[in-house]
Design goal:
The longest helix has 73 residues. The protein folds into seven domains: 136 residues, Beta-Lactamase (2-Layer Sandwich), CATH 3.30.450; 167 residues, Beta-Lactamase, CATH 3.30.450; 146 residues, 2-Layer Sandwich (Beta-Lactamase), CATH 3.30.450; 195 residues, no CATH class; 169 residues, Histidine kinase-like ATPase, C-terminal domain (Heat Shock Protein 90), CATH 3.30.565.10; 161 residues, Heat Shock Protein 90, CATH 3.30.565; 97 residues, Rossmann fold (3-Layer(aba) Sandwich). Strands 1, 2, 3, 4, 5, 6 and 7 form a seven-stranded antiparallel sheet that branches. Strands 28, 29, 30, 31, 32, 33 and 34 form a seven-stranded mixed sheet that branches. Strands 15-14-13-20-19-16 form a six-stranded antiparallel sheet. The protein is extended. The two termini are 74 Å apart. It is α+β, with helices and mostly antiparallel strands and 1208 residues long. The protein is built from 31 helices and 38 strands.
Length: 1208
């Protein structure tokens, strides 16, 4: 289109609109189009692309008029200025041509054309001297006239229209030809003829008007008559004949001209009989002009008709280089040809992708899927040979082949980085090799063999991990579109291969679940057997009772004694019956418990699978964006900005390490940890550990040594990755807890008498660090128990490394030994068999023997997550805080966008983590409610204010109604009440579009001297199916993957809300109908408030005073938190001094004057509580006025707040 605009200066714009459902088969809306426009703006050519009218109804305008009735349209003339200046306005019209595909409308193309071209054509129509022609549109707008001031005015405002004795407007609207004579000034008589024509194949009728003075028509006849009179009366008859001949000669061309114009007006181009006039006067010129005009219209109409029919190969030559319409039609055909070729390529691409996608569905083994995939690729890409190598612990092995002599027995194996296969896996990108040597693997058939001329090696990467590598060879060129096709399907193939691996792991889990079900079945059978025995005993008692009754007459003397025995037996029978009933109830409870365990396991697995994506997506974004920003490729960032980006990257990595620790342990517990046994060199393990830790030990100035005894075998059979993971955990612990001295990695044989030195190898990590107390040495290997939750903890991390190491050692058939003395150092030793395959290792997790163990471990996990809140939230605060500080520094737009994405991703991730940590705290019993006076009305208004913008984005109306009886000030936990109301209201806003959300607060009454307040949130959203309502408030079970992916979130908000409502002695529920809406309700008990809460209580005046600068002592051990606080306080214009722990802070406060102290609670050496206590004692002893101390923490529990408030 740009070329058309360049080559045709008379075109002021060229545009094309496409139906979205013609471009995208997945687009299901009735309306919607994408428009591309090239237009002139002064001397520049500009381009614009836009998507219009998606999902709108009852649309009008020329586009939808032609869509409903496809035809070529020429619009009414209009004035337009391309410079926005009125003096530069031109008269133009738009040509619009529908684009059809097999009779179906798919779009519209057209251009905006200046109407000067019609002016040039009409100007040449002057059949008589003194005559002239004009052209008007269907609505009477003058397009061309000798007097240019009349152009773009109405024909109905001209003199002859005003003085005419007929309805000119009505006759023009009729679309028929007509003529009349008129005297405009009383003396000059004019002959006026209106000839209709249809421009192109337009249904509108335009007119050419020919105005001829009557005296011009009769001028020649008068002159001839005068000469005849002079000759004599004898020539009267001859003169009459001459007058008749001349008049006929003059009028005949006019009649034929009118006939031709009438034919053109009806679009009858084929049957035009163009006449010729052999004279050389104005009539011959008029005939020649008509001939050219009709021929041009006929050729152009025929060519346009062929284009409309899809015949794009017809031969056509424009009249000249200045033939605007002809050149435009040629360019339109060229564009349509290019579009058809593009559509054919896209159709091939989409069809091929769908074919491969269908192949990837269903359950298959990796080998079967690989063979079917290669057969399909060979057919699609026209290749002759192909192989697939799967990644098995960094070794690429042949899985499938097509037309190759290789099989799994003779195929080579490649390490990552080795050969083309390994190199493609290492670079994680496609490699193309054109210069194939003659001795390369050949393509053989019954008739001969040939060497491929091109090799393409493509890695299949899923989540930055190479799953497999595809190698294809061909004797023909592999085009760019085929390479693009390979790139597009590579991720889907990698996902399918990864899904097969995951499915295999899930089958192992299924086997485990089935085994547990069998155990429950055995227990039920035992209970049934016990029940049968009790029934037999009951029957025996009945028989005894009958025998006693028959002997009653004989034993009348002992009747009283027997009666007592009978009562005793009846009581015993009742007891047995009750016991039997209890056993039956216990059996039913076990069945129900088994069912609940199975359902909970399923829901938790689905929850973790969903959250894995929800956690990793923003975390990956943070790592990628911060890594890119920290590289400072444009060299336009300050050192402080680069440091901020590096802090974000480090915080993200710390958080990823914690998540990976928890997931690794979950894999081991669920039996999903696969073994990869291979021949491993001891030297390879030692070199990997040396390379991994040499930088860290060098930084801490610690002597790092590696010793290998002579009797240690050079090669062992084991899983190298898991062995190195255990040793790395040992080394990481040693490096973390050793501040000076040395760390030794030693490989030696076993000294244990129970182990054969020839069959066992030991790997020890010996450090001179702080050591481990004897009473802690067993606990450090227990999952979720070893985490130190004290506020003075010195070392970070999840504390799961040794638990993971112990379980991995079991999988390797080995053990872990610890030898340590507090204050002197530790020695961790891993002993594993030299040949793993010679021993039998059960990799399946052992089922819990008792229900109490499972409940205890579940509680410990919740306690662990609640304790880890500080460790997880600290890097999250770092990410969000540093991102916000970075946004306030000078950045380019691209850099600001990157930082803004990091900030958004961090906040999204924090919401997910907070939900998980909150539910864990509730389960662990670490949530306690506050009881303070607060403004209930203000809490509700804050919720409405927080969600107002989001509600408007959803086009919702958000309304708050509070009953007059609801007290304004009450006693309770305002933060938790706000959390409940925010969860429920946000849920309603999220699932409602173009509707209404109403929050109603009502007074229910008094209960136990407290106010019972009711809350309702009514929405007109999507509603909830009845079968889903029972799962809505349950942890993990309420998530529907489709809904959760569409609307986001963890799905724990309502479960958290239910727990909090129950803590506040209330109830919660929902009434819902699909596609109608939902009503969430809850009620809570709130105490009476005897006084209005002090809004200024425990708040520091945050108004910035430019004339005052405070000296602030910041006590914080975390470098990231230091940087965030430092940046914020400096922005407020204050001076900051940093202390790394409480002890340093106390010393600095005693020596220097400060205005305020910001005190972290959790710190090494001395925590914030003790430091604050010492400062207060020193102030008291030295009679100093107490300084304001503000407590800081990432995980403040209620007890921490109360303790801090007592000290401060």
């Amino acid at each position: 289109m740009e070329d058309i605009l360049i080559k045709n200066p008379q075109f002021y714009s060229v545009w094309t609109s496409w139906e979205l459902n013609a471009i995208d088969p997945n687009f299901n809306e009735e309306n919607g189009r994408e428009r591309y426009t090239y237009y002139r703006e002064g001397d520049e050519l500009l381009y614009q692309a836009e998507i219009l009218e998606v999902g709108e109804l009852n649309l009008g305008g020329i586009y939808y008029d032609i869509k409903n009735n496809p035809r070529e349209v020429l619009t009414e003339p209009y004035l337009y200025s391309y410079t926005d200046q009125q003096e530069n306005q031109i008269l133009e019209s738009s040509i619009a041509i529908p684009l059809m595909d097999n009779g179906v409308f798919i779009g519209l193309t057209g251009s905006d054309v200046e109407l000067d071209r019609f002016h040039d054509i009409v100007e040449n129509i002057n059949p008589f001297k003194g005559s002239y022609a004009s052209m008007i549109s269907a609505k009477g707008v003058i397009i061309s006239h000798p007097d240019s001031t009349l152009e773009n005015t109405s024909i109905y405002d001209t003199e002859f229209s005003k003085f005419a004795n007929l309805d000119i407007e009505g006759m023009v609207n009729s679309g028929k030809a007509f003529s009349f004579t008129e005297t405009t000034d009383g003396t000059n008589k004019l002959f006026i003829s209106f000839a209709p024509f249809k421009p192109g194949v337009s249904s509108d009728t335009w007119y050419i008007i020919i105005i001829v003075p009557s005296d011009v028509i009769l001028q020649k006849a008068d002159r001839t008559f005068t000469i005849s009179v002079l000759v004599g009366f004898v020539g009267i008859l001859l003169l009459a004949l001459l007058i008749w001949f001349i008049a006929r000669r003059i009028s005949k061309p006019l009649i034929k001209t009118t006939k031709i114009l009438n034919q053109l007006s009806t679009g009858d181009i084929e049957n035009i009989d163009v006449f010729e006039i052999k004279t050389h006067d104005e009539l011959s010129e008029m005939a020649l002009a008509l001939k050219k005009l009709s021929h041009s219209l006929k050729v152009n109409a025929e060519f346009a008709l062929n284009i409309g029919k899809g015949k794009l190969d017809e031969k056509y030559n424009p009249l000249s280089d200045s033939d605007v319409l002809g050149n435009a039609l040629l360019q339109m055909r060229k564009n349509l040809l290019e579009l058809r070729n593009t559509n054919e390529r896209n159709q091939w691409m989409q069809t091929s992708i769908v074919r491969i996608s269908e192949l990837l569905q269903g359950e298959k083994t990796i080998t079967d899927l690989g063979n079917q995939l290669l057969i399909s690729l060979a057919a699609i890409l026209d290749i002759q040979i192909a192989t697939i190598f799967s990644n098995n612990n960094e070794v690429l092995e042949l899985t499938s082949s097509y037309s190759s002599n290789l099989d799994k027995s003779n195929a080579p194996k490649f390490k990552v980085g080795q050969g083309l296969i390994g190199q493609a896996a290492f670079e994680q990108k496609m490699l193309i090799f054109n210069d194939v040597p003659d001795d390369y693997l050949t393509i053989k058939s019954g008739l001969g063999k040939v060497t491929p001329t091109i090799i393409v090696v493509m890695p299949l990467v899923y989540q930055k991990k190479v799953i497999a590598v595809i190698e294809i060879g061909s004797t023909k060129e592999i085009t760019r579109i085929k390479l693009d096709f390979l790139s597009q399907i590579s991720e889907n193939i990698a996902l399918a291969f990864n899904s097969i691996n995951t499915r295999t792991e899930m089958k192992v889990m299924l086997t485990k679940t089935q085994s547990q079900a069998e155990e429950l079945k055995v227990q039920q059978e035992e209970l049934l057997q016990t029940n049968n025995e009790l029934e037999e005993q009951t029957n025996a008692l009945k028989v005894s009772e009958e025998e006693l009754q028959t002997q009653q007459e004989e034993l009348r003397v002992t009747n009283e004694e027997l009666e007592e025995k009978i009562k005793f037996l009846e009581q015993q029978k009742l007891d047995i019956s009750n016991k039997n009933l209890e056993l039956e109830n216990a059996g039913e409870e076990l069945k129900q418990k088994a069912k609940e365990i199975e359902v909970a396991s399923k829901y938790k697995s689905e929850f973790l699978a969903n959250m894995s994506h929800e956690l990793r997506t923003p975390l990956n974004s943070l790592l990628i964006l911060s890594g890119s920003l920290s590289q400072n490729k444009d060299k336009n960032l300050t050192d402080e900005q680069v440091e901020s980006a590096e802090i974000i990257y480090k915080s993200g990595n710390d958080l990823l390490t914690m998540i990976n620790d928890i997931l690794d342990l979950s894999k081991i517990e669920s039996g999903k940890m696969a073994m990869n046994i291979e021949k491993v060199k001891i030297e390879s393990i030692s070199e990997n550990i040396r390379d991994y830790f040499k930088h860290g030990t060098s930084q801490k100035n610690i002597d790092f040594k590696i010793l290998i005894d002579n009797n240690v075998p050079a090669v062992i059979s084991t899983d190298q990755q898991k062995t190195e993971q255990i040793v790395k955990n040992f080394m990481s612990n040693a490096l973390k807890f050793t501040s000076k001295g040395s760390i030794t990695l030693k490989f030696h044989t076993s000294q244990d008498k129970n182990n054969n030195p020839q069959n066992t190898i030991c790997i020890s990590v010996i450090d001179t660090g702080i050591g481990i107390p004897e009473n802690k040495q067993l606990e450090i290997f227990e999952a979720f128990q070893q985490a130190d939750g004290s506020i003075s903890r010195k070392f970070g991390g999840t504390g799961l490394g040794l638990s993971i190491s112990r379980e991995l050692a079991k999988l390797l058939g080995g053990k872990i030994h610890l030898k340590s003395k507090h204050g002197e150092g530790s020695t961790f030793t891993l002993s594993i068999p030299v040949n793993w395959e010679e021993i039998k290792v059960d990799t399946k997790p052992k089922p819990l023997s008792k229900k109490e163990k499972a409940e205890k471990k579940d509680l410990l996990k919740s306690l662990f997550l609640a304790t880890m809140s500080h460790e997880i939230r600290t890097p999250m605060n770092g990410i969000i805080g540093v991102s916000e500080l970075l946004k306030q520094t000078p950045l380019t737009q691209d850099q600001f966008d990157l930082v803004n994405i990091m900030s958004i991703s961090g906040n999204n991730l924090l919401v997910i983590i907070n939900d998980i940590l909150d539910i864990s705290k509730i389960e662990a019993g670490q949530i306690k409610l506050e009881n303070r006076s607060f403004d209930l009305h203000n809490v509700a208004k804050e919720i409405i204010s927080m969600l107002d913008l989001k509600s408007k984005d959803q086009n919702n109306k958000l309304v708050l109604n509070i009953d007059k009886q609801v007290p304004q000030y009450v006693m309770g936990d305002s933060m938790r009440l706000k959390q409940i109301l925010l969860n429920v209201t946000n849920n309603a806003v999220k699932f409602t579009k173009n509707g209404k959300v109403e929050v109603i607060i009502s007074y229910i009454g008094k209960q136990n001297s407290k106010h019972k307040i009711g809350f309702k949130v009514i929405d007109t959203g999507i509603g909830i199916h009845k079968k889903e309502l029972s799962k809505l408030f349950k942890q993990f079970s309420q998530l529907n993957q489709t809904t959760q992916r569409e609307y986001g979130g963890t799905g724990l908000g309502l479960a958290i809300s239910k727990s909090l409502v129950e803590l506040m002695n209330g109830n919660i529920g929902v009434i819902s109908k699909p596609k109608v809406g939902s009503t969430f309700w809850f009620d809570v008990l709130l105490g009476n408030s005897l006084k209005v809460p002090d809004k200024n209580l425990e708040k520091v005046d945050s108004q910035k005073n430019d004339s005052i600068s405070f000296n602030v002592l910041l006590v914080e051990d975390n470098l990231i938190n230091q940087k965030i606080a430092l940046g914020i306080i400096k922005q407020l214009g204050h001076n900051v001094t940093i202390a790394d722990n409480g002890k340093i802070a106390v010393d600095m406060y005693m020596k220097n004057p400060y205005d305020v102290v910001l005190m972290d609670i959790q710190m090494p050496v001395m925590d914030g509580f003790l430091a604050t206590k010492m400062i207060r004692e020193w102030e008291k002893d030295n009679k100093k006025e107490p300084i304001r101390i503000i407590a800081l923490t990432a995980n403040a529990l209620k007890e921490d707040k109360e303790k801090a408030s007592m000290l401060v």
